[in-house]
């Protein structure tokens, strides 16, 4: 009977444990989806990136991106560099404070020659009264009479010095000799320098004119040299259409890039600057834009020209309004078109609100 009761008690205990485990099972949630939807707050610089291109890709003002990462003009960045994209991004970690193996706080400074100083204990800073009294007593005591006079070695040294001074006084002074006759002044002869022969200036060589018939049909006109131009921000941008063609995409309509307008055209058609400014980006490093040009007009406005076939400008080139900067193409696009954007303080604007009506 006792064995049967013991077996029943054990069975009841095991049943209770199993029920308790089933009731306290941990809840598991899949966070992978939320992680994918959360935008990254940092960006790793790749070869070919510029600060303007990175800011354009993330719809930021280049000045805000430079301020977040403490980058000053000319905004130089290096491949592999980590850039913060927002104020909520983790700041560079600082060295951790020193702690011992048991996790105790930082050790407190100790007094010189002593052990650990307790809080409020500053006795080691007070003067030593015994040492002061001992020094005062030694100063007041008279010297030993036997040692009061100078030593024998000091007396001998003094006699040697006195003898040397006496020998110096007995040395006869030198008598001044008769005055020497002044030397006659000799005037140097003036050297005559022959005048250099004037060489005739070489006649300018006429540059050969291009052969007739070498111009390519449909190619954009040659632009003047950009060397020597100085960038001056304009107060007001006199916007003009960058290319002639049919409007096939409006601001905010479909497609992967909706921050501007799309203008259809023919491959090789000239693309012109919509306003005067300086080229701050020229390349294909911004995904989805193909061969891209970013033109800075002033501290507020930038314009973009994407999907180009060829680029006729490089970074830091100063261009004028209406100057050819590229040719139309279909890089990163299904058809030949120009994707044109206008951004104010890094934020996309509808270009049709700035371009003149046509």
Automatic annotation (TrEMBL):
The annotated regions of Basic and acidic residues compositional bias extend over 135-149, 220-229
Gene Ontology CC annotation, any one: cell outer membrane
Signal peptide limits: 1-19
Q: Which SMART domains match?
A: LysM
The biased composition feature labelled Acidic residues covers: 198-212
Which superkingdom? Bacteria
Q: Where is the segment annotated Disordered?
A: 76-104, 135-229
| Stretches assigned to the LysM domain | 41-85
Q: Does the keyword Ion transport belong to this entry?
A: no
PROSITE patterns, per this entry?
A: LYSM (PS51782), PROKAR_LIPOPROTEIN (PS51257)
Query: Do the record's keywords include Hydrolase?
Result: no
Q: Name one GO molecular function term.
A: metalloendopeptidase activity
- Pfam families documented for this protein: LysM, Peptidase_M23
UniProtKB keywords = Signal
Family stated for the protein in its record: Belongs to the E.coli NlpD/Haemophilus LppB family.
Q: What is this protein called?
A: Peptidase M23
The organism's lineage is: Bacteria, Pseudomonadati, Pseudomonadota, Gammaproteobacteria, Oceanospirillales
